[in-house]
Every structure is written in C-alpha cells, then in structure tokens.
Amino acid sequence: MAANIDSIDAARELTRGEYKYGFVTEVEEDRAPKGLDENVVRFISAKKGEPEWMLEWRLRAFRAWRERFLPAGDPTWANVRYPKIDYQDSYYYAAPKSQEDRPQSLDDVDPELLAMYDKLGIPLQERAALAGVAVDAVFDSVSVATTYKGALAEKGIIFCAMSEAVREHPELVRKYLGTVVPYADNAFATLNSAVFSDGTFVYVPPGVRCPMELSTYFRINAENTGQFERTLLIADKGSYVSYLEGCTAPMRDENQLHAAVVELVALDDAEIKYSTVQNWYPGDKNGKGGIYNFVTKRGTCRGRNSKISWTQVETGSAITWKYPSCILQGDNSVGEFYSVAVTNNHQQADTGTKMIHIGANTRSTIVSKSISAGYGQNTYRGLVRIQPKARNARNHTQCDGLLLGDRCGAHTVPYIEVKNSAARVEHEATTSKISDDQLFYCMQRGLSAEDAVNLIVNGFCKVVLKELPMEFAVEAQKLLEVSLEGSVG
Amino acid sequence: MLEIKNLHVSVGGTPILNGVDLVVPEGEVHAIMGPNGSGKSTLSYTLAGREDYEVTAGEAVYKGQNLLAMNVEERAREGVFLAFQYPVEIPGVSGMYFLKAALNAQRKQRGESEVDAIEFLKIARRNIKILEMDDELVRRSLNVGFSGGEKKRNEILQMAVLEPRLAILDETDSGLDIDALKIVANGVNGLRGPDRTMLLITHYQRLLSYIVPDCVHVLSGGRIVASGDKDLALTLEREGYAAYEAAAA
Hints:
The structure holds 2 protein chains of 2 kinds. Chain A is an alpha/beta fold.
C-alpha cells in the first residue's frame, strides 16, 4: 500500500514536471490538445481552478481508464453497433464559445433547427438562447438564475454548477461524489470521472421540500450541457426535490461522444424525482452522424423509506446506452423507472434500468415503453436483483414495444436474480404493431394517418408521460410527434 | 344523396359485391338486411373507404361527388360516418379526448373554428345524457374493457357529436340487450332529420321496430335482390332469407 502511494506520488511529481513545461502556454488556450493523457486531465482541473483532492480523484479515474478500460475496449454486451471510437482523436476540453464565435442572430442559425423549434412550439424568446445566439439570452439566463437562486437559498438549498460546488462546498462533494457511481464503475463513467466538463450540484437540506421544479433554469442554460456532464444530487433526510433535465428542443453538438454521469443520494424519508427529456441530434435519415449517448445514471436510496423515481423520454441520439438505476438500500425504500424510448430511421437504443433490492420491504416499479420506426432498433435491458436480506421485496416490470413498419425491431432482455424466497417479482412484456383496424377507425372519424399514429402512440406512452411534470409532459408529447414524423404512409 | 350503381367489390381477389344498385334520398333511413356473408359489412367498409376493399366496377355518388375517389378521412370530413360492428380499442386514449380530436379535425377541414374543451364538454354531456351513458365511461381508454353494449352506445355518442350527413350503422343492434337497444334506438331517432341520411345494416327486424326505416333492401349474394317498405322486414322475419338466397344463387 505504502509503495503504491509512493509510486503515485512519484508519478505525480513526474507529470507535474511535464505539466509545468509542457502546458504552461496551453493553459491560456480554450482547448486542450487532441487526445487524452494525464496532462489533459490536469489541464481541465487547472482550468476549473480545482483543489488538489479533485485532481487526485480525476487522475485515479484516468489511470483506471487507461489501464483497465482502454485496453479492454468499450462494453460489447449492448445491442448497439457503431465503429470503434478512437479516444485519442477527440478533444476533451473546450471552453464555451465566446460571444464573437456564436451565431449573431437567428438568421445565422441552421433553418432546419429553427423549423424544428417551430414544430415543437418553443417560445420565440427561448429560441435564440437554445440555438446559442449571442444576444440577450445570456442576460436572460443570468437574471432567471438569480431569481431562482434567491428563492432556493432561503430554504438552504444548494443548486449550482458542479465546478462551483467543488470550490464552494467541498465537504459535501467529497462526502458524496463517486459514492453511487464509483470513479471506475464502467468504461464511460470512468472516462467521465477523469474529464467531466461540468454539470449540476444539488443539495436539499433535511426536512426541506424544494418549492419548485428545478427546471426552467436548465431549459435556458441547456446549451452549455457539456460532452461529459456530471451531476450530483443529494436529498437529505425528509426532503423532496423534483429535477428536470434536458430539453425538448433538438440539441446539436460537434462532439459525437457523450458520456454523462448522474448520481442521486436519498437519505431517510427523502424523495427524488428525476425527469429527463433527451433530444440530442439523432443523425440524418441514413444514419449518418448523431450523438453517441453513453450515460451512467444511478441513485441510492440510502435511507429508510426513501424514494427515487426516474422518468425518461428518449427520442434523440444515434445511439443511446443508458440504464438509470436504483440501489434500494434502506428498508422500505422505493425505486421507480418510467421510460419512453423512440428510435426512428437508423437510431439504436439499448436502455432500461437496474433495481437492486438490498433492504427489507423494498419495492420497485419498471414501466418501459419503446417505439421503433424506420430501421430503428430498441432494446429494453433491465436487471432486478433481490439480495438475501431483502425480505418481502417486490418488483413489477412492464415492457411494451410498439413497432411502426416492418424494418424496425424491439427487443426485451430482462435479468432477474432472486436470493430471497419471500420476494415477489413480476415481469410482463408485449410487442405490438399499430393495427390497420386502429388506423382505419381513427381515420374514419376524420383524423389524418399521421394524427392517428400520434394519437395511438400517445395513448401507448400515457402511463409514462403522466409521470412527467405537467408542462414537460405536453412538450414531450409534441416531441414524440415530431420524432415520428414521416414514419407512416 | 347517395347513389350506388352496379358496384362490384372484391376482397383479396374474391368478389363479394356483384353489382349493387341503391339510391338513398337525402333525409331517409334505409335498412339493408341480409343473411351472413351476403356482403353487408363489405358494403359499409367500401362506402367508408377501407383499404383492401377493391372496387372492380361501378360507382358511388355522394352529394354529387365521386365517393370512391376520396380517401378515408376526406369521406369522414365530408360527413360519412360508420358506426362499427366491432369498435376498435385504443389503449391510453380516453373516449373524450379521441372524440374532441375527431370533431376538431373535421371542423378544421370544413373551415370552421375548433371547439375548446369547455364547449366540447357541453356538447358531449348533452349527448351522454340522451344515451344514458355513464360519464365515467368516456373518460376511460377508448373501448378498452367496454362491454358490447357500451361499445355500441359509444359509437352512437360519436355519431351524435360528429353530426354526420350520411351515417352507416353496421349491425349496431348486435350485442345489445333489449333495454340498451331501446336507448340506442332512441338516440338514433333523435338524430334523424331532413339533412341526415342513414343506412342501417342488420340481420334482424328487431332493430327496425324501434328505428322505423323509410325503405328496406335485401342484400343477398352481393346484390340488392328486393326492396320494399318497413313491412318487408316483417316478412323476412317470418319467412327467413331462404327465398332470396335461392334467387341470388
């Protein structure tokens, strides 16, 4: 052990040396050089003005990635296909674009993107901000953020950028970061731990019910969600918080690889509701381009009677690899996962959840709705594990797949491991096509084929959509319609 | 209003209708009766525009337009309504939501303003009352877990709200007990009017005791083989279809 620390120290000395001479000019640059090595990790950490412990943590992750995950390659068990990623051919840090580099008005923005905003009914005043236009948007978001922060601060809620939390609330970050998703959890999470750009930190103190959905702020700031986002959300004893992530507006990014990590911690009697709408660029009709979205999301119900509920509407990305999970550690804790995943054209999604029942009387519910159109491939992959001490644990899983057309696919891969005989685990799965009878019935009443499909799809997803906060649900419904445009007829 | 001439229809290459001739003047209610397999449902699906019902000859003129040239939703928006023999289930979509979407799609097409939720609720409530339906029913997923009678009643509710010009009721009486039949008939009678034309498709005379038609036609072997007034239905009830089946064959 001692030798180990010594050698780390030695390595640190050595690399610090390199850093000193190799990077001294680079620190002024907005971009780290291409590729990934320790220097890049140090560069990112330095850019963010991080304390030593944070850098150490990143470096541990980096070494694990370099030594274990890079040689082993990306996980191959998922039902997705993509060319091998050359990790040395990417940039791992780029400062947000300066005002001069941004589009100067909506006239400079891709008309296709604007057309999409229009279809989605995004308010005019938000479009500029979403498209990254260098106008009043910045002012708007700052003022909105300030208003929010005031209201939250009154309750003692911390809601800030991850980088800010590292500086301002190191005791909390150190206590919880990596306790749900360890720094060397899987290839993508490890990469994220080494190079995470920024993200969100939320802490809700004991007994506090967060007075608002933590959302609007993000809608406006969504343009800055980075390539390697890192989110940590802690609900202390008896608190409640609802967090909305993402945006229905289509998000473009020049970086193809996205590897985010989200960690949730719910202590005794606390509840976290985490809702996501993901609409990253899915690539074109022929499957060219599009984001690889490799996300690790996990929550721990650490305390008794705690609850974590994930709701996701995934319509974007060329490839989605994502399993928001719950570790049900506290007795009587509850985990929920509600998901709608759409794959159209050549999109591929391998998504689901893990419910790990550790405590007694723990309960979990999984509702997964997949919609496949075009050549889209949609896989539900879920693990329900009942540990020996999880007396009377219960799980109900429902997976439904809806197929539009005859070239797409829906797959269900459930893993069920039960080590306590008092557990009750139920799994239901269906796959269906929209029937000609249903379409004819709707159209006989005057609906167009497209409206008929939308109506049926929305009905299919309703149990999930109703879990979303009201305003978000309406947007998500519209998003589904736009995502499936042109998939019939 | 509706004029069908020498209509031939095949389904999957098999001829089902073999030269149907039928004239239904505006505002009249005509019953089409016939044994199983005579082509009654094929006629109603063909008029509504269902795919896979291939018109091989003949024509159908509706309000002076070539009905067969219009697609399904155009016909619906022009006022053609089919009350289904087997209404389809749509999970997760409430009856109210569905009906409002349908009504507004039709209104929009006709250049009328869309009705808002409150106005729609008024229209729907009025008709729900007439049909003695449970309010709860229309809040549930469309036709999911409905009894046969509830489904049929719901079809008539849709008809009442959509106010079609030509309503085709395909075996609306099947699956209804006598009380439900009376309520449904009452609802249908309330919708009769000078600008609403109806085709009642049925096996049995029973329905026609409650909805008295202006004219009764017998469909057999894919052709109208006899026409008469309401008494023809009574004769059929007494003597059966055998005589006509022989004639068609």
